[in-house]
Design goal:
CATH superfamily: Metal-dependent hydrolases
Strand content: 5-15%
Radius of gyration: 20 Å
Helix content: 25-40%
Distance between the termini: 22 Å
CATH class: Alpha Beta
Number of helices: 13
Shape: globular
Largest sheet: 8 strands, parallel
CATH architecture: Alpha-Beta Barrel
CATH topology: TIM Barrel
């Protein structure tokens, strides 16, 4: 079995409480949060649908208290050290949902605070940790400003979009300055597919808000499909040919049928989008990478392998655990579900190719610390 280093492309870290982030807000916004009310205004927006089982592994609660994912030592003991994690890309926890605030200026300030807090309180603890530049997309000019502010930081390896505050699919020309800035600083753009539940103004699934968390969770890939079609149809990859998109927590089993349909529709309707010069599947293979988690459980292992072979998944997938959520996928789980010949690419090579030099470390490095 594979014994080399592993890159985990979706590790959720967070603050113990919003009190950790308040000092990173400008004084005026600190006063806005504290106000004259009995309790401070919450920084993390809360959705109406809640997982009845919660989201977190119970064993991930830090010994000294706090939320799972808020303690580096626990993350190190449960994830980094046992599984030879050479790089772990931090993707926030409840902080993801701060981008859903209706006030676009407040949303921009709180994600800026989260980014600076991560740089100060997580990255110095371990060279294996890499950060994401979280942005809010309400006002693309402010998102661009944040990307350019942190884009040269050697440990910030991607731009991260979570909730969609405006309701337009992410290929809309309104958002093109975000992709231009990401290309300018040499970073891929990650779209977190399972963070649309909380905050924002858009239903997390098509045709309206669901009644049950079960509905939402089963249909999570819908958002990623929508954004992917939008990116290609609006010519984002033609306009920015070096852009890379990372789809996080989007599932993987839907991809073959989706690409078949998209290619077929394009052949009949391409006059409507004359700037799209190639088949959608060609853009997908060149520009898009996807995390393995949540890795669908087929009745038989061979069925999933055959399905993934239809779109050359060994070249597309990058490994992720989604730690510390209870439905996270361990390294050993993915090893058992995929052909051994695919593992070096999925655990290592594809991520290095997608993220570039900022993520590269020697494949012979022993990372136990």
């Amino acid at each position: 079995m594979y014994s080399g280093p592993v890159i985990d492309c979706d590790v959720h870290h967070g603050s113990r409480s919003q009190e950790d982030l308040l000092p990173y807000l400008p004084k005026g916004w600190q006063e806005y949060v504290k106000g004259r009310r009995p309790n401070p205004l919450p920084l993390f927006t809360v959705g109406v649908l809640q997982n009845p089982q919660g989201f977190m592994r119970q064993d991930a609660v830090p010994p000294n208290g706090g939320r799972p994912g808020s303690d580096y030592e626990t993350t190190k003991a449960q994830l980094l050290d046992p599984y030879n994690i050479a790089r772990a890309i931090l993707t926030y926890e409840d902080e993801l949902f701060m981008t859903g605030w209706p006030n676009p200026y407040f949303a921009a300030e709180v994600v800026r605070a989260a980014n600076d807090w991560t740089i100060d309180h997580w990255l110095p603890k371990d060279d294996r940790l890499c950060g994401s530049i979280l942005i809010s997309n309400h006002l693309p000019e402010l998102a661009v400003k944040e990307i350019r502010r942190l884009g040269s930081h050697p440990r910030m390896v991607q731009v991260l979009i979570s909730t969609n505050a405006l309701g337009h699919p992410l290929g809309h020309p309104l958002f093109h300055p975000i992709y231009e800035a990401a290309v300018e600083v040499g970073l891929p753009v990650a779209i977190h597919g399972a963070s649309t539940l909380t905050g924002g103004i858009v239903s997390p699934i098509a045709h309206g808000y669901p009644n049950f968390y079960l509905e939402y969770h089963a249909l999570t890939p819908q958002g990623s499909m929508t954004h992917l079609v939008s990116l290609i149809a609006n010519g984002v990859f033609d306009k920015y040919p070096s852009l890379r998109i990372m789809l996080l927590e989007a599932g993987v089993a839907w991809v073959p049928a989706f690409l078949w349909r998209f290619d077929s529709e394009y052949k009949g309707l391409r006059r409507e989008v004359p700037w799209v010069k190639r088949l959608p599947s060609e853009y997908f293979h060149q520009h898009v990478r996807m995390t393995t988690q949540p890795f669908e459980l087929s009745p038989k292992r061979e069925q999933m392998i055959e399905l993934l072979s239809f779109f050359d998944a060994q070249d597309i997938l990058v490994f992720s655990t989604d730690y510390p959520h209870w439905d996270s996928d361990a390294v050993t789980h993915i090893m058992k579900r995929l052909p051994e010949s695919w593992l070096p690419k999925i655990f290592w090579e594809n991520a290095v190719e997608a993220y570039g030099e900022r993520l590269r470390v020697s494949a012979s490095t022993t990372v136990a610390q």
